[in-house]
Fold this sequence. Notes:
The protein is an alpha+beta fold. The chain has helices at residues 3-15, 66-75, 111-129, 138-143, 150-166, 179-193, 229-237, 246-260, 264-292, 302-315, 323-326; strands at residues 25-29, 37-42, 51-55, 83-87, 92-96, 198-200, 209-212, 215-218, 225-227. Helix 5 runs antiparallel to helix 6 (179-193) and helix 5 (150-166) packs across helix 9.
Amino acid sequence: MPPEHEALVILTHQQFPELADVPCEVDPIVKGGSDRHFYRLVWPKEAHPGMVLMVYTLARRDNPKFVPATHRLAAHAVRVPQIYAFDEHKLCVWLQDLGHDDLHAHRDRPWEARRPLYEATLREGAKIHDIQESSLSKVDLTVLEPPFDEALYEWEQEYFLTHFVQGHLVRDWKSGQFAPAHEALKTLRKRLANEPRCLVHRDFQSQNVLLQEGNAWLVDYQGLRPGLAEYDLASLLFDPYVTLSMDERYELLDFYAGLRNLDGRLLKERFLLCAAQRLMQALGAYGNLSRNQGKPQFKQHIPAAVANLIQVCAAEPSLEGLLPLFTN
């Protein structure tokens, strides 16, 4: 066993002395662009069903928010992993092991098989979105990430402009030729900022949904904050990691509208606006991760994200002005 794994086992024995004499295997879980590290801890089944150890850093402001976010979501009956132990000083969290099966793993199955999995996922999302910002106390807001407001939407847009338009496409986004695009960006962020907010997951995509017996369990929700439900919906239904048709997206959108008794027309309109915002954020992330953080594998997702963004801009006239930024 590598020394770093031995150190993790020692830490685990300190938290769970009843397991000190039981052989333990440490299996690193490698996925995503996070600076956190995950390890599956495996004992003989008769000793313990197993758990996942999350080791995080303070490099990101939202990393320490995972534990309070877990407690908050669990209190609202959202399916999230149980926390077995937490060492705030050593930055370690021992979690329920929800297994290997995520929504992303089903991306190539027929729609008839995938649809109920997406519906189960949307049911969990709806539980989060039913929590309105107006119902949150000042104490609640202090332990959440800052809400989506115009400044945050603008930050996401500039992240896209800096790391994708300039960094990846090598285009001068400050050039006067893109003035109409900047007006479209301004209109978009002002429109989104004026909508009433609820609680949102913030990274509601296929790799952050684990599946067990037909039920969806959510992970990576440390970015929990007030925002628009449609931002989460766009994260899931325009996820560049999987392929959905527009008919399938709208079918799921109708299902979600029924869950929450929403006006389907207004939901669709906000959904497309949020999809443009979310896809720009994702493209900025892919550009940054692949160019600046030594994770070139994220470059492979750029074509799908661009194709999705083109599709969104074509479906919503107010977004057409964005196209010159990232198309020829």
